[in-house]
């Protein structure tokens, strides 16, 4: 065989038929460019700049500490009770405090790494698993130099103290509210009843305007709350009661209803208008996505799907029980009213529930 056909020749290639090709161009070799030269930053050559950036990072860590302390103070001084405004204010202050605390740590860490820690690129050749004593000693020396260069030990003690304080205080923004809620209200029997009762008018959420049956068109969906006074809707108690009593009401053609009666034979709908609890029986998410053609209600959290034309029975998803139905009728003025409360507890399971 000639040198032209030798399989080790880089300028040849053997085809599938065994013939050799001589038109293949060998790969061009080039030298390893290596690591580019290090470009020093301003903080590497100017001590004043390094000191200024150290003060900036320290300030950010201190700001994080103040945010954590402010969150705890807001939790104690502005409890979410009394009015809707107090709930909003408490939530706002807690969120701002936690944001300042966590952002202070994050921004300070990034700025520290970008401006003060060493940024020179290094290449480390591979070695056997167990390096020689000389190499191990060199590695320890390099680590010590890195610690010294980052300013984590020895110098910049104020910066180190600010960083440790920020990291130590931030968990309080989560732990204090959690600990404070341990002694909350565990009376689960409150879920067995809502503020719906016989004669309570159905009203639009959030305006509170009563709804007439003539206002509800076929295929439409309404978010419904019990009618109450405007003064009561400004109280903290209303927030709790509304969260249990929210309803989704839709209207279908009466002939499309597969079931519209209670187990006792009482009619629970009015001329194709049906109303169900918006609280999913899986984990309590709001069921509010209505598909007109299929009459399906979808829970956006875990995709549990309920059929409003068939007593809101589950047709898909992890939920195991239908949505509780609110029995409705109309009063003498044509307004939609509740016949009674829900026939069963709303929401997901709890240990005192029979089913």
Automatic annotation (TrEMBL):
Residues 1-22 are annotated as: Disordered. One of its GO terms (molecular function) is 2 iron, 2 sulfur cluster binding. Its cofactor is [2Fe-2S] cluster. It is a multi-pass membrane protein. Its main location: membrane. CDD domains: Rieske. InterPro entries: QcrA_N, Rieske_2Fe-2S, Rieske_2Fe-2S_sf, Rieske_Fe-S_prot, Rieske_Fe-S_prot_C. GO terms for cellular component: plasma membrane. It is found in: Cell membrane. Residues 244-337 form the Rieske domain. Iron-sulfur subunit of the cytochrome bc1 complex, an essential component of the respiratory electron transport chain required for ATP synthesis. The bc1 complex catalyzes the oxidation of menaquinol and the reduction of cytochrome c in the respiratory chain. The bc1 complex operates through a Q-cycle mechanism that couples electron transfer to generation of the proton gradient that drives ATP synthesis. Belongs to the Rieske iron-sulfur protein family. This is Cytochrome bc1 complex Rieske iron-sulfur subunit.
């Amino acid at each position: 065989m000639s040198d032209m056909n030798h399989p080790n020749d880089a300028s040849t290639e053997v085809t599938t038929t065994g013939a050799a090709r001589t038109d293949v161009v060998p790969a061009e070799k080039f030298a390893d460019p290596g690591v580019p030269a290090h470009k020093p930053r301003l903080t590497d050559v100017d001590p004043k700049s390094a000191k200024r950036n150290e003060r900036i990072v320290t300030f950010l860590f201190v700001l994080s500490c103040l945010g954590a302390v402010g969150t705890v103070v807001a939790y104690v001084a502005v409890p979410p009770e009394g009015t809707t405004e107090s709930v909003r204010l408490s939530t706002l202050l807690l969120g701002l405090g936690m944001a300042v605390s966590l952002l202070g740590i994050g921004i300070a860490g990034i700025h520290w790494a970008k401006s003060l820690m060493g940024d020179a690129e290094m290449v480390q050749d591979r070695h056997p698993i167990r390096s020689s004593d000389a190499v191990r000693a060199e590695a320890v020396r390099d680590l010590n130099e890195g610690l010294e260069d980052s300013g984590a030990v020895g110098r910049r003690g104020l910066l180190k103290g600010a960083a440790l304080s920020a990291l130590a205080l931030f968990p309080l923004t989560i732990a204090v509210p959690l600990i404070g809620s341990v002694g909350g209200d565990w009376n689960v029997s409150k879920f067995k009843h809502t503020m719906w009762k016989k004669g309570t008018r159905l009203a639009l959420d959030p305006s509170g305007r009563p709804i007439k049956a003539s206002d509800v068109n076929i295929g439409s969906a309404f978010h419904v709350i019990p009618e109450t006074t405007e003064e009561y809707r400004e109280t903290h108690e209303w927030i709790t009661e509304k969260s249990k009593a929210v309803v989704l009401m839709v209207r279908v053609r009466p002939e499309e209803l597969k079931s519209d009666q209670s187990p006792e034979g009482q009619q629970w709908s009015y001329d194709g208008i049906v109303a169900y609890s918006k609280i999913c029986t899986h984990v309590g998410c709001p069921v509010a996505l209505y598909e007109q053609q299929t009459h399906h209600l979808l829970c956006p959290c875990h995709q549990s799907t309920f059929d409003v034309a068939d007593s809101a029975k589950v047709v898909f998803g992890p939920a195991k029980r239908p949505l509780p139905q609110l029995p409705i009728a109309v009063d003498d003025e044509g307004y939609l009213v509740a016949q009674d409360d829900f026939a069963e507890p709303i929401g997901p399971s709890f240990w005192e529930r029979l089913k």
